[in-house]
Records
---
Amino acid sequence: MSRINTNVSSLTAQRVLGQNNKSLGTSLERLSTGLRISRGKDDPAGLIASENLRAEKSAINAAIGNSQRADQVVNIAEGGLQEISTLLTELQGLLTTSANGAGLAESEKEANQLQIDSILQTIDRVAGATSFQGTKLLNGNFDYKLSTVNAGVSDVNVRGAKFDGASYTVDAIVTASAQQAGFLISFGGTALDLGGNPSGAFTIEVAGAEGSRELQFASTQTVTQIAAAINAVTDVTGVTAAGSGSVVNLSSTEFGDSEFVSVKVIDDAGQTAGGGGSIATYAGDFSDETDLNTAIAFTSAEAGNGVRDDGQDIAGTINGLLATGNGKTLSVNSDFLDVEFTTSTSVSQTLGAISNGAFTITGGGADFQLAAEVDIAGKVSIGIGDISARKLGNSSLGYLDDLASGKSFNIVDGNNTDTAQQIVSEAIDQVSSTRGRLGAFQKNVVGATIRSLGVALENTTAAESVIRDADFASETASLTRNQILVQASTNVLSLANQQPQQVLALLG
């Protein structure tokens, strides 16, 4: 059948040539751009997936930058803390030197006090000067702001807190009370009565968490004098005594499991008053004299081997988390809350919830966004307290600035170098603890986060590449195929256009 009005073969050849040209254009575009998907029509579902992955890559890159910035901030803070730590170590040595009273002239003490004053001033200056882009790091700028602190709570240290809203109340429940160690020693009278051995010596060994001492008492020495002799060595033993009537009440100076009181009767020297004397331990809470165990006689083997009583740490929960107790101090460390505070004796020994909460956090702290997704789980909060001299120390001992000239523990006017050294030791512990906490933050939080985000970025990029990038090997083969098809289609179209001319032979 021969028709000239409609050349179907030519139309078919044109359609196929158009398709082949389009395929060739697609191959050229993919090879020139390196992308398999350049617009939505290339792969609608693939485009959506790849754009989501691109957004994730951008967020991960930003999170890596945030983590690196956090590391830089902490590095600067660490530098200031390291210098303060060196100054405190020097200060500790000055106090030890100054305690050598008989070997120092007054002028030397005054010179040492000048050094102490300059150290305290330098600590304040370093705390105020350490900054990152104008933001001071060690002056309390990144400390947490507190309100409604319970009267029975002191030395609050908020090291980290994440919460939504304007404030966050820290509630605590005491489940086990803090106790001192101790017991009662009864002498049967207000003074020692060694009966027929007036020249003998009643000898006991008193021991505590700090050490032990052997003490000897003569007949007729009063209970008050015995207590005073025990108190004279409290710094060595960690044991205090209170004499009343015929009884000496021994107790550890501090609370907690690490505290103990031990008494060993080395020689009772014939103590006869009140049946020879005895030691009574508490069956329940310390100081509850209505709940005592059976008295242990001085002459018993148990007293000769030593009677010991241990203290007890406070126990409880903080905001639903099991807290760690140390003496009268409760602490908890979690991703959302890291706090520590000390309770008063009455609060630490009252089981149940602390009335009206321990305290409320109203803001503050240093917040770092270390995850790609912006939410509370991806945020890390850390508190850096005020490292100035007026803040280093605690409420029971005193603070570092109390060592300055004219203050309570200056070495020229006062004789409290032992307390001053305890304050400096507490300050060293606080600075060291802050440095350790920041170091752990750098190593275990920032470092691990950067490594984890790096792996996530690598895998996300790989996933996005699989979806969006062109496979050059495949596209090169497709290009060759399409080039051949275009050439073939062009030749076929030429032949199809020539076919109608054969009709002229019928008109010959």
Note: Residues 80 and 126 are 6 Å apart (CA to CA).
---
Amino acid sequence: MNHTGAPEHERGFTLIELMIVVAIIAILAGILIPNFVNARSQAQTAACESNMRSIATALELYYADNQVYPTAAGAAVVPALFTANGVAYLNNTPKDPAAQSATATYSLTTTQATGGSPAGYTIQCPGVHAGSTLAKLPLSSGALCGANCTATKILYVATQGLEASP
């Protein structure tokens, strides 16, 4: 008799073996996917913080040369705002990866020194950030945002640094 089927010792995987492999892959995916999502949120927050520090450095350089901050009230942070006497203190327009729109920009509000109060500024990030990524930032009250942080915005305030904001 001519048997064309596979020999008995070359059988494929059983249904149980395949189900076990699929279950193991599903468990690993269930563990890893949330970690990747959180890592992305943390990277977006870190990029925003870095951009805000760069803007603050440009502001301080501008102030050191001109003894005044550029006049701004909720103005978009663009290189033209940071140019004085032919010197550009900011070379490009920083973009926040967590911004809801590709055209959203950081906003700047400055105050000039008056009556003994020093000049200052506040930079606001245009993006919406996960509260868990802001846990280590202080709130305007000075307390840390904490593990159950409900803040979604980041501010950079002159003389105080980064802050979480609702």
Note: DSSP finds one helix and seven strands in the chain.
